[in-house]
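Lab notebook, bench 4. The sequencing result for the construct came back, and we need a structural model before the next group meeting so we can plan mutations. Quick request posted to the team channel:

Model the 3D structure of this chain.
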Amino acid sequence: MTSSQRHDNPLKSRLRPLDIHGTGPRDKLMNSSYPRKMTTRRTQVGAITMISAVLILILLTEMVIYAVQTGVFEQRKSSNELRQKQAFHIADSAIQQAKQFMLVNAREVSQAAPGGWLAAGTTKRWLPCAGITDTSHPCFAESNTNLRNGSYYYSFADATTSDDKFLPLKPTDLGLDIAGGETPNPNEQVELYALLCMLDLDRSMDPVVQGCTTTAAEQDERYFMVTLAARGEADCDNNGDNCNAEALISEKIGSFGPGGNEGGPGVPLTARTSVELSGTVEIVPNPNGGGIGVPISTWLNANPDPACNAPTDPADPVSGSWLTCERHEWYGVAEFPDDYQCPTANCSCSPTEDKLLSYRQGSDVNLGIDVVIDPGFPCDLFAYTFGIPKSKWQDVRDLADAEHQISDCSTLDENSAGFYWVSGADCDIATNQVVGSVDDPVFLVSAEDTAIHGVLFGVLFVTDAENPNVEFKGNGHGTVYGAAIMEADMKQFNGTFQIVYVDAIVGGAFDTPLFGGVQGGWTDFHASWK
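Done. Here's the predicted structure in token form:
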């Protein structure tokens, strides 16, 4: 056998030993299995990634759907709230306008005299609720049966259907529609109703207010309450129908006079400070101020409480004279004039002692029963008169409407009537100036230095609520037909100041109709009469 044959033996070549360094056939066999295992592993990893991505997409889709649903819900909720607020403000605007309407017509609201809203005839604006059984009628805005049967509902031109509306208002000024009137915005509607309760008063009972009454003999035109009810609607169609939002509001307002506590002192002159006048003061007293036949001309502060700051001598003029006399002596006639005014140019108290009730002229002093120097004088005369502490004087000022909150007294004249508050400059009633009238007196509150040189019909109240140094003074001849109440210092007087107490004028001034909200009287509700 040749050497070549030995090397070419096939069997021998097959039995060649393995290469321990990994270069032989075994190494190749082992390496050939690795790619298969790695491919399987990579395939498994890709499947997990795909499943995770699908799950995340599903979650994201659900989150997007939830967010869209929430957004749509919130949008609908916001839209509903917006519509509801629109309806509420429409109703509230009508209520506020109705309150102003009532204020303008305050004197007619409760009067049964000709021209009043309770007067008989075709001009009557209040009709009784008693006998109405239709629960959709506005009378059923009052849920209490007894109060409802004693109330009236507002009707214009004697309308008697359930469509009665507050027609005298001008809703177009607010862009509102009442009783089908044309409106710039038919998508917003409002209906406004009013009920009147003439208070049934029995001062021997507790409580004094027993309810409402339609019996004329039991009514006092000074004491009544009006309920205003408004239904506002929004998001209506172009015809004003099919409204999608509604708000119902009711508010009660009460009538009262500015003398909200004791009704004011029933005397011509009430003074917290001393009456240090240098001129002449003449006072015609209230003939029944201290009881039947007991005249009272002056009520002065002598309260020993340090908080009252009473003067040492409340009635101590520096010079001049202080005279009080019966009204027939002052007028110079036996009969009281029908118009209460001096029939001549020189009405005065006679200096003759036997014709005077009280006088003080230098050292010659005679203070009769008509001058009350009171140790129980109220420390807060402001609260005594108005029922509101002086510290809250803004509340009294705000009883006057904007036109009656004036900066001085120059614009006041005989046509002025009602409640006024003066702040900003001196209040000087000039020599030829007449303020108020016998039939329509004023209640004038001055928070500034004040002087009366002309004539005032009503009640004058000079307060130091805003200015602690305010004074009442004058140089000339001034007359008040009614009463004067002084928290201010009375000084610097040169001339004659006269106060003639007239019960009808004082009563008219204190009973000046004012409106204020009744505590607990505002509500939003779902009306049973809808």
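The first strand starts at residue 126 and ends at 128.
Will bring this to the meeting.
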